[in-house]
Design a protein that fits this description.
It is a single chain. Helices cover 48% and strands 0% of the residues. With 225 residues, the protein is an all-alpha fold. It has one domain. α4 packs parallel to α6 and α6 packs antiparallel against α7. The chain is elongated.
């Protein structure tokens, strides 16, 4: 219905601008509340290549082949029970990820390399790491993540930024350790490689060089899986 309302073919990419009231019309057609099928709306908005992977995963699930799947094909035959359908909730963790991140995780599931639980954990890690990257980018005053990685290679690795994952108020009220980390990065880039950062160096205004935060791209080297 989304494609029909947007006057697009089913094999096109999902429309970037959703038709007005399409969610309400779909909900009425399905006789459901909009909030109760919110995940279905999300899945309808996935890219074509991601949706093709989901169809492949669903077929693998029916055969009990997904990694760590609770019921395998053999067990279903022994118990004389049908394997339950793959729930849409298994894809909930893909929300708020970039398309390339979604595709990466779905590829791992389709290749039988990762379970839904593992991909959910990796998705959470990606979101937390992206937030740290955005905060670091903002503090050093750069407009895009590629430039940040080029200027601060030692400070933009997964290992270097990992200690700040999950830190509350990292953007509005960053801890002194993060401020020192950013200040050290700026000093290193400016050539002060031998100068250590002391508590006296901690100055939020020194670290915050700009307010523009670009969308951080998915970096395969900074992902759990």
């Amino acid at each position: 219905m989304l494609y029909e309302m947007a006057e697009q073919k089913d094999d096109d990419e999902p429309p970037k601008r959703k038709p007005s009231k399409w969610r309400k019309i779909c909900a009425e057609h399905l006789e459901e509340k909009e909030t109760s099928i919110d995940l279905i709306f999300f899945m309808a908005s996935l890219s074509t290549r991601c949706f093709e992977l989901i169809k492949k995963i669903d077929e693998l699930y029916k055969d009990g082949k997904i990694k760590d799947q609770r019921m395998t094909k053999q067990e279903s035959l022994i118990l004389n029970r049908r394997i339950p359908d793959c729930k849409s909730a298994n894809y909930k963790s893909l929300r708020n990820l970039k398309e390339e991140e979604q595709f990466h995780l779905l590829q791992k599931v389709a290749a039988l390399e990762c379970s839904f639980e593992e991909t959910a954990k990796a998705a959470k890690d990606m979101k937390e790491m992206r937030f740290v990257q955005e905060c670091f980018q903002k503090k050093v005053g750069e407009d895009d993540w590629d430039t940040v990685k080029e200027k601060y290679p030692e400070y933009t690795t997964y290992g270097a930024l990992k200690p700040f994952k999950g830190v509350k108020q990292l953007e509005k009220h960053p801890p002194e350790s993060f401020i020192r980390f950013c200040l050290r990065a700026v000093k290193t880039e400016n050539g002060d490689k031998n100068e250590s950062t002391t508590d006296d160096d901690v100055n939020t205004s020194t670290c915050i060089a700009g307010n523009n935060v670009a969308i951080v791209k998915y970096d395969p080297d900074s992902c759990l899986i």
